[in-house]
Amino acid sequence: MNKNGKVYGSREFNNDCKLKERIEENGYNTYASLFWRNNGRQMFVALNGKGATRKGQRTRRKNTTAHFLPMVVEQQMKGLFY
Prior knowledge:
Blueprint: E1 19-23, E2 29-38, E3 41-44, H1 78-81
Antiparallel strand pairs: 1-2, 2-3
């Protein structure tokens, strides 16, 4: 996530790639930028109803668009992801 709250893919690991994961009371996970803030407020990774990313400036921790369910990966599937 860049300083404008836009989520993007990067070949190199940098400060834009650092996210804070929080497990919410409802069992969902939220991810906020560690490096960037908007007027002192955290910017969260969020997806709209069509699956497109929302700008971090428009997101809040309690928005359901910023809630993600963790997925358990079976041992056989681990090689597919890394």
